[in-house]
Structure formats: structure tokens, C-alpha cells
Amino acid sequence: MHIMESVIARHCEDLFPHANRTGECSYFRIRDLASGTILANVSGSIDFNFCSALADHDRDALWVFCSAFGRYNKANPGPCSHGYDNCYVGTWKTKLSGDFSSWTPTARSVTLPAGVGMANNDVTLVSGKHAAARAAEAGLPPYQAVMILETDRGNWSNHTYPEFAINTGSDGDLSKNWVVLPKLQYRISGGPAGLHTGEGTGDAPTIRYDAEEGYFYSIGGGWITNGPARSANLTATSWEGSPLAPIAVPALRAAKAGLPATDMLAGINTKLYTNIWRNGIPENTKLFVANMTKWNWGVTDPDVCCSDGKSPSYMLHTLSHQGGPLPPGTKSLNMAAMNTIDMPLFEWFRSYFP
């Protein structure tokens, strides 16, 4: 198993000596999950950020989609982070069966309207017996994929609802043929309190399509990871939130409610990233984990795997102090938590709608 990581290089010139870029830069890389070995640092993605990955096993293709958001690039922060003039999604492809060393040139797959910026995105393939009918219900042409976009229209307090784009092609090429849908007509809306930004699926959203039953599922959240929410056709009136949300609760909030802080109890899995932890867990990291109920306000940016009908499934999310203050003298380092679910992905999602 591999993982795509959207990361920051502190010294870009050391990692990419021929890129004519100094200082900090954002990019994505591919890592072997078990060993922790980095297999590829993708230079074509320098000054892109907030990336998502999609594996198309039928076509032996790995796609990565990133916002043109030059994080930590003060001189040229990119159109999705400053000015919002022609903000776009950069897209790359490589073979799943390859060594991840060769990628297609950057494609501008989705361009947002003037005045609209974006951070996170996620993409799901759409197929199966329900797909055409679901599109027709919403007044849309047939489409092969859907992208969910965490957009901004001015001040990052205005992105309550994510936006959607559909790919109207039919050949598996996700570098083109994207159409951004009208925001007010196609959005996650309504339902219980878990469907708005911060506490719901508006921030850093993930989307998956259950081809067997014909539902889209989305999870997300700026502080608590709520969801899933589900919809048959992406229209604003079609979304419903699970009565069993949230999926994940920050350790600090759990402790305040008298509940077990499960992330802290789980500790650090040294069986993953074995190369990283080969010398044991650093003492400052142990203290960081033990102190989790004092700083962990946020479980954010969820992603899930895998849409192959097999068990187990996985959810990855961050642990951070986003959403609340740090106590005096407390230090915080972002960490990732991986949850293992002993059932296929869509069986797990369906279980939230009894």
C-alpha cells in the first residue's frame, strides 16, 4: 500500500536542485506505507498544495489533483491563494504498476470563476447501473467522475458549502472535460447541524461514490470530523446527514465530555513507517501524545480507503490544535491518525444510515 502526502520542503533547493526555487515550497510525494520509504518527490508539483489522489485500477492510472496554492511562497503564492484570478486544479498521472518516477506534465484540469479561490479537493469515479439515472435526476449530462472543492469567495469564512465539478468525458482521462456546477444548486446543504463548515463536511471534504446503491458520501470538518452525509445526485435538497455523526472527536473535546480520548489511547503504531520509527519513538513525541487532551482541538482533513469492496477500510485524519487555543507552555506538532475499520468501505458508510 502507498500513500500520497501533500507536504512542505523547508529547503526546496536541496530537494529539487534544478527547480530554480529556494526556501520553503509545497509539493506532493509518494511513500511506501509499511516501510515509510519515500518513493517519489514530484518536482512538477512545486508550489501546489492541498492534494488528493485517485487510483483507477481498471486503467492502471494514479491521478493526483492539487490546488495552485503556493503555500509558503511569499513571492508568488499562486492564484488559488492570492488574488483569485484563474485559480485552478493542477493534475498529474502516472502508472499504478510503475515506480512513480514518471508523471505527465501539469494539466489545468479545473479552472474556477474569477474571484474564487480554493484549498482542498477530492475526486471519485462514477460508474454502475445507477449513474446515468442519478445524473438525469439532477438535470446533468452523464459524467464519469465528480470533484468536491473547498472554495473561498473572499475571506475563508465564506466557504460554508463546498462546490462540485463533474467530468463529462467517458475515456478515463481526468485531465480535461471538467465542468464546475452552479454552487447554489449543487451543494451540501440542509439536514442536522453537522452539514455546515467547521463542524461538518464543508472543510477539507472527502467524496466517494457507492456504485452499488448509487449514493455519494462525503465526510469532512474543520474541528470535529462529521458525517458521512449522503446524496443521490449532488443537488442541495438531496443531502442528508447521518444521525450517528460525528465520525471522529478530538481528544480534548472527548476528555471535556468525560469520554475516552481514543487517539491518545491508541498511541503510535510503530508497525507503520518502520524506517521512520526504527530507532524508537522520540521522547518529545511521547510527551506530545501523552499531552493530547490539552491541545487536540481538531480532527480534520479526513480521507478514506479503499473503494474495492474489500475489508479492512481505513480513515486518515489530522490531529492538531486547530479550532481552539493552546494552553500556555504547550507545544503542538501536527500528527496523522489512521483508523482501521473491519468492513468494506461502503458497508461502513451505509451503517451510518440505519
Any overview of this molecule?
By secondary structure, the protein is mainly β. It is 11% helix and 31% strand. The chain has 7 helices and 18 strands. The strands form 5 sheets. A 4-stranded antiparallel β-sheet has the order 4-5-6-7, with no helix packed on it. The protein has a 4-stranded antiparallel β-sheet with strand order 8-9-10-11, with no helix packed on it. A 4-stranded antiparallel β-sheet has the order 12-13-14-15, with no helix packed on it. 43% of the residues are buried. The mean pLDDT is 89.
What are the salient characteristics of this protein?
354 residues, mainly beta, four-stranded antiparallel sheet
Strand and helix map with partners:
Layout: E1 2-9, H1 12-15, E2 25-32, E3 38-42, E4 49-56, E5 61-67, E6 88-95, E7 107-111, E8 117-125, H2 131-137, E9 145-152, E10 163-167, E11 178-180, E12 206-210, E13 215-220, E14 226-231, E15 240-241, H3 251-256, H4 262-266, H5 283-290, H6 292-295, E16 303-305, E17 313-319, E18 335-341, H7 345-350
Antiparallel strand pairs: 1-2, 2-3, 4-5, 5-6, 6-7, 8-9, 9-10, 10-11, 12-13, 13-14, 14-15, 16-17, 17-18
Low-confidence stretches: none
Strand order of the largest sheet: 4-5-6-7
Work out the strand percent.
Answer: 25-35%
Radius of gyration: 20 Å
Number of strands: 18
What helical percentage do the residues reach?
10-25%
Summary of the model, kept short:
Helices cover 11% and strands 31% of the residues. It is mainly β and 354 residues long. Strand 13 and strand 14 (226-231) form a beta hairpin.
